[in-house]
Design brief:
six-stranded mixed beta sheet, homodimer
Chain lengths: 301, 301
């Protein structure tokens, strides 16, 4: 399968940001992408750096957004994995991946199940944890195990998708560094993020894709244009670390991006390889399910 | 904590092999090791390359072996993680890690829960899957999450140990290459093995140690001395790939061995780091336990 990975910086406002996304989707579609994956909350800046009730306005376009991205999927004839801000009703919002078929129809949604809450990643303020569980989405290019960002740290999420027949794991992501951290610490964070997801690939014998945001976004987004003009802005903010990647069914690295450049990459994934890898390493055969019930406990005191 | 990793080739018979192990334990103990970890089934050759009822004789010394290694732990004043062939009764055997305190007393055993069965790794013939579950072992150097080899591919095992308060994961291991495989395939296998365990470290915020066998052992062990004389023996066999490693609580690499040299390495592990790492990345806080019950299913059809 040909997969298109699309990621780029926030462009200053929603219109410009979406236009850039469309340009890059067109590029990967022309290069043969059948499935295209976008970064987390790709329509705008990463608003979760602050707790601000005004930001709920960003979800007001939820119904229109779904119509819009359906048209994009149809126009380019691609299966499209988007990451949108869902307004379910007043005061009830989700961080939701919406998956569109080549004909533009929605084939499934996934509401982010694990919600982080760190300084400048105040997602618990915005997003109610998903209530749809870990359900793969069937598409014309395969059964997609779509998860979102923080989910990527949880082996349980990956395993549950695999046990429901997901053929690939997909993580739209928004993760980055604080400029004030030491270089070593930044390296440990990035490599840990790669390592845990590579582990999901190995443990489940399926490919894993993460598409992460890129570029610096100040906590005070009104300072964005000013920050753009300097390489080392003094503002508080997140430097999204890019490094989008693809690992194959045996955990082998197929692609890894750098931490700065916009991404419009088509990657070939051998979807038949899972069958061979799982025959060689039949981990699913030997799970001790009768000894796993404590996995549903918070902790065992 | 100072941890001693000890691994070496099979030395031709049990006596010589144990003597080599003792020499290396002495070395790491003198260099300050408080906890020493040995490779899987370290007393002898890896007999699971064949299904042979005669090999059950190797478990006849089980009671004596426990006494012997207890004396070793006491002599050197170390907590010692051994990997022995347990004879529980006639026709009932386990692949069992026995952990000794500094005073030589047994503080706990772990019976390998996940049992592999591949060509030349015929462990299901020899070992009944463990019936003690995933229980950490309390020692004077900390609560040890001792698992064995094939367990290392299972995120469930690592998580359950962490949920019971294990402060470190430890995997005595016997894994290697077949010489006939391509170089690329060998590399994928080795890196997958490292990656999945590194993932456990990240997902659980605790250090992970694997100590793996080294060297070529022919399937027909009577050919061992002949094979020793040539660099590229034509015999069927397993080339144990070494590469013993230590990852810290954030998945950072602290130590990694090569694939050939005997190992008597003391590694310093910061056991307090877990506390910090888990405060920064509080994965345990956000587990969706109410959505995990399917982890106890074989597959969800």
């Amino acid at each position: 399968m040909q997969v298109g990975l699309v990621a780029h910086k926030f462009m200053g406002n929603k219109e410009k940001t979406i236009q850039k996304t469309l340009d890059l989707i067109e590029k990967v579609a022309k290069n043969g992408a059948q499935l295209v994956i976008l970064q987390e909350l790709h329509q705008n800046y990463y608003f979760c750096q602050n707790e601000s009730v005004e930001c709920f306005d960003l979800a007001n376009s939820w119904e229109d957004d779904k119509v819009f991205w359906g048209k994009v999927a149809k126009k380019f004839g691609i299966v499209l994995v988007t990451s949108l801000f869902e307004k379910r009703t007043a005061g009830l919002y989700h961080n939701t991946a919406v998956v569109f078929e080549k004909d533009g129809k929605i084939v499934g949604i996934y509401r982010k199940m694990h919600i982080p809450d760190d300084p400048q990643f105040y997602e618990k303020f915005y997003f109610t944890p998903g209530d749809l569980g870990f359900e793969p989405i069937d598409t014309s290019v395969g059964r997609l195990g779509v998860l979102v960002c923080w989910d990527q740290w949880y082996p349980e999420a990956a395993r549950l998708m695999a046990l429901k027949g997901a053929e690939i794991l997909i993580y739209p992501t928004a993760i980055g560094w604080f400029d004030g951290d030491e270089k070593d610490e930044k390296s440990r964070q990035l490599e840990a993020w790669v390592a845990v997801q590579r582990g999901h690939s190995v443990a489940n014998g399926i490919p894993v894709i993460a598409v992460n945001r890129i570029g610096f976004e100040p906590q005070n987004i009104s300072e964005f244009e000013k920050c753009k003009k300097t390489k080392n802005p003094k503002e508080n903010g997140i430097r999204f670390w890019g490094n989008s990647f693809v690992f194959g069914s045996q955990g082998e690295q197929i692609f890894r991006a750098n931490d700065t450049d916009e991404l419009a990459q088509v990657v070939t994934i051998d979807m038949q390889r899972c069958e061979n890898v799982r025959r060689w390493w039949p981990f699913l055969r030997d799970r001790r399910i009768e000894a796993y019930e404590n996995l549903t406990k918070r902790f065992i005191d």
